[in-house]
Amino acid sequence: MYVLWTIESIRAVEIKSKYLIGRFPSQNPILALKASHELDLVYDNRSQEEAAKAYYEWWYSSYILSDKMNIDPLKNTDYRWH
Fold it and tell me: Is the pTM of this model over 0.90?
Protein backbone atom coordinates (compact mmCIF):
# COMPACT_ATOMS: atom_id res chain seq x y z
CA MET A 1 0.00 0.00 0.00
CA TYR A 2 2.89 2.35 0.71
CA VAL A 3 4.25 1.83 -2.79
CA LEU A 4 0.86 2.40 -4.43
CA TRP A 5 0.37 5.52 -2.29
CA THR A 6 3.79 6.77 -3.42
CA ILE A 7 2.91 6.12 -7.06
CA GLU A 8 -0.35 8.01 -6.56
CA SER A 9 1.60 10.90 -5.03
CA ILE A 10 3.82 11.10 -8.11
CA ARG A 11 0.77 10.95 -10.39
CA ALA A 12 -1.16 13.57 -8.41
CA VAL A 13 1.78 15.99 -8.35
CA GLU A 14 2.34 15.50 -12.08
CA ILE A 15 -1.25 16.49 -12.91
CA LYS A 16 -1.40 19.15 -10.17
CA SER A 17 -4.40 17.45 -8.58
CA LYS A 18 -6.68 19.68 -6.51
CA TYR A 19 -6.90 16.84 -3.99
CA LEU A 20 -3.24 16.95 -2.94
CA ILE A 21 -2.52 17.40 0.73
CA GLY A 22 0.87 19.01 0.62
CA ARG A 23 2.62 16.61 -1.72
CA PHE A 24 0.52 13.57 -0.88
CA PRO A 25 -2.69 12.16 -2.38
CA SER A 26 -4.17 11.54 1.05
CA GLN A 27 -3.40 11.80 4.72
CA ASN A 28 -2.48 8.13 5.04
CA PRO A 29 -1.67 5.21 2.74
CA ILE A 30 -5.05 3.68 3.54
CA LEU A 31 -7.98 2.97 1.25
CA ALA A 32 -11.52 4.12 1.95
CA LEU A 33 -14.83 3.20 0.36
CA LYS A 34 -15.90 5.75 -2.28
CA ALA A 35 -19.62 5.28 -1.79
CA SER A 36 -19.65 5.74 1.97
CA HIS A 37 -21.07 9.00 3.31
CA GLU A 38 -18.77 8.65 6.30
CA LEU A 39 -15.08 7.84 6.29
CA ASP A 40 -15.12 4.06 5.95
CA LEU A 41 -11.52 2.82 5.94
CA VAL A 42 -10.69 -0.63 4.59
CA TYR A 43 -7.70 -2.72 5.56
CA ASP A 44 -8.60 -6.16 4.23
CA ASN A 45 -6.62 -8.23 1.77
CA ARG A 46 -9.36 -8.07 -0.85
CA SER A 47 -9.28 -4.27 -1.10
CA GLN A 48 -5.49 -4.21 -1.21
CA GLU A 49 -5.38 -6.89 -3.90
CA GLU A 50 -7.99 -5.02 -5.97
CA ALA A 51 -6.04 -1.76 -5.65
CA ALA A 52 -2.79 -3.50 -6.60
CA LYS A 53 -4.47 -5.06 -9.64
CA ALA A 54 -5.90 -1.69 -10.68
CA TYR A 55 -2.49 -0.03 -10.49
CA TYR A 56 -0.85 -2.94 -12.33
CA GLU A 57 -3.39 -2.71 -15.16
CA TRP A 58 -3.05 1.08 -15.23
CA TRP A 59 0.75 0.87 -15.50
CA TYR A 60 0.72 -1.80 -18.21
CA SER A 61 -2.08 -0.17 -20.22
CA SER A 62 -1.35 0.90 -23.79
CA TYR A 63 -1.57 4.63 -23.01
CA ILE A 64 1.55 6.76 -23.25
CA LEU A 65 2.84 7.98 -19.91
CA SER A 66 1.58 11.57 -20.24
CA ASP A 67 -1.96 10.31 -20.94
CA LYS A 68 -1.69 7.63 -18.28
CA MET A 69 -1.01 10.23 -15.60
CA ASN A 70 -4.49 11.68 -16.12
CA ILE A 71 -6.19 8.35 -15.46
CA ASP A 72 -7.12 7.50 -11.88
CA PRO A 73 -6.09 3.85 -11.39
CA LEU A 74 -8.81 3.41 -8.75
CA LYS A 75 -11.56 4.89 -10.93
CA ASN A 76 -13.25 1.55 -11.64
CA THR A 77 -12.93 0.24 -8.11
CA ASP A 78 -14.94 0.83 -4.94
CA TYR A 79 -11.97 2.55 -3.33
CA ARG A 80 -10.23 5.89 -3.00
CA TRP A 81 -7.31 7.09 -0.95
CA HIS A 82 -8.16 8.21 2.60
Answer: no
